[in-house]
Amino acid sequence: MKLTIGHMYPDLLNLYGDRGNIIALKKRCEWRKIDVEIKEIKAGINENFADIDLLFFGGGSDREQKIVSEDLKSKKKNLIKAIEDGMPVLAICGGYQLLGEYYKTLEGNKIEGLGILDAYTVASNKRLIGNIVVEAHLFNKKFYLVGFENHSGKTFLRNCSPLGTVIIGYGNNGEDKKEGCVYKNVYGTYLHGPLLPKNPEMADILIETALSRKYGKINFEPLEDSIEQRAKEAFIKRFMKK
Ligand code: GLN
């Protein structure tokens, strides 16, 4: 089996180790003998997303988000088609904001998003920074996600589901305890850190979804993740105490 992972704007959206998510996806596929091709999708490149099995967006500053927002206009039609067809997507922070309707900067400028997530983001004076623990509910499984967040944007969900409930930290907006957003196989989240090496369950949800979409029923073997799980437990214990 083989997966093609699309890395959106790797030169513009890559904050706080977000590239580590690509490395984690690649490694977890290789450990299962699944071939991986990483396709970098940059501004100005024409992409129809038909041969992309899994798509990743990292975070970026307002300046970079503006450039990406302009470029997404030409990619929007094909990207939405692939998402509606079930392509799994992971988008972090600035990338997450760009999948929503818009991101309104502190100066009041609206940076247009794809509008695939029924959510909008408004910048605030206070940056929401720190370690974060989230309780996620996905596919009838409950598990913790740990990470680090750093954003000024506050995201508000309308008619869409959060990825989980904030236990420690701010999440979408620091007000309603919601973190991230899920639509079809699209996951938006504020968790940098990077997210996937710290939370292998999330990496495997993306990989398994991509494989079943491409190959139908597959035999998806679990990996030995005891070190990752111990690290996560230590993280949770440490920050729950404070
Ligand atoms: N510019 C956005 C914000 O501060 C996104 C930042 C990020 O991706 N970390 O809200």
From TrEMBL:
<dbReference type="GO" id="GO:0071555">
    <property type="term" value="P:cell wall organization"/>
</dbReference>
<dbReference type="GO" id="GO:0004359">
    <property type="term" value="F:glutaminase activity"/>
</dbReference>
<comment type="similarity">
    <text>Belongs to the CobB/CobQ family. GatD subfamily.</text>
</comment>
<protein>
    <recommendedName>
        <fullName>Lipid II isoglutaminyl synthase (glutamine-hydrolyzing) subunit GatD</fullName>
        <ecNumber>6.3.5.13</ecNumber>
        <ecNumber>3.5.1.2</ecNumber>
    </recommendedName>
</protein>
<dbReference type="Pfam" id="PF07685">
    <property type="entry name" value="GATase_3"/>
</dbReference>
<dbReference type="InterPro" id="IPR043702">
    <property type="entry name" value="Lipid_II_synth_GatD"/>
</dbReference>
<keyword id="KW-0961">Cell wall biogenesis/degradation</keyword>
<dbReference type="InterPro" id="IPR011698">
    <property type="entry name" value="GATase_3"/>
</dbReference>
<feature type="active site">
    <location>
        <position position="192"/>
    </location>
</feature>
<keyword id="KW-0315">Glutamine amidotransferase</keyword>
<keyword id="KW-0808">Transferase</keyword>
<dbReference type="InterPro" id="IPR033949">
    <property type="entry name" value="CobQ_GATase1"/>
</dbReference>
<dbReference type="GO" id="GO:0009236">
    <property type="term" value="P:cobalamin biosynthetic process"/>
</dbReference>
<dbReference type="GO" id="GO:0009252">
    <property type="term" value="P:peptidoglycan biosynthetic process"/>
</dbReference>
<feature type="domain" description="CobB/CobQ-like glutamine amidotransferase">
    <location>
        <begin position="4"/>
        <end position="199"/>
    </location>
</feature>
<dbReference type="GO" id="GO:0008360">
    <property type="term" value="P:regulation of cell shape"/>
</dbReference>
<feature type="binding site">
    <location>
        <position position="127"/>
    </location>
    <ligand>
        <name>substrate</name>
    </ligand>
</feature>
<keyword id="KW-0573">Peptidoglycan synthesis</keyword>
<comment type="subunit">
    <text>Forms a heterodimer with MurT.</text>
</comment>
<dbReference type="InterPro" id="IPR029062">
    <property type="entry name" value="Class_I_gatase-like"/>
</dbReference>
<dbReference type="GO" id="GO:0140282">
    <property type="term" value="F:carbon-nitrogen ligase activity on lipid II"/>
</dbReference>
<keyword id="KW-0378">Hydrolase</keyword>
<comment type="function">
    <text>The lipid II isoglutaminyl synthase complex catalyzes the formation of alpha-D-isoglutamine in the cell wall lipid II stem peptide. The GatD subunit catalyzes the hydrolysis of glutamine to glutamate and ammonia. The resulting ammonia molecule is channeled to the active site of MurT.</text>
</comment>
<keyword id="KW-0133">Cell shape</keyword>
<dbReference type="GO" id="GO:0016740">
    <property type="term" value="F:transferase activity"/>
</dbReference>
<comment type="pathway">
    <text>Cell wall biogenesis; peptidoglycan biosynthesis.</text>
</comment>
<keyword id="KW-0436">Ligase</keyword>
<feature type="active site" description="Nucleophile">
    <location>
        <position position="93"/>
    </location>
</feature>
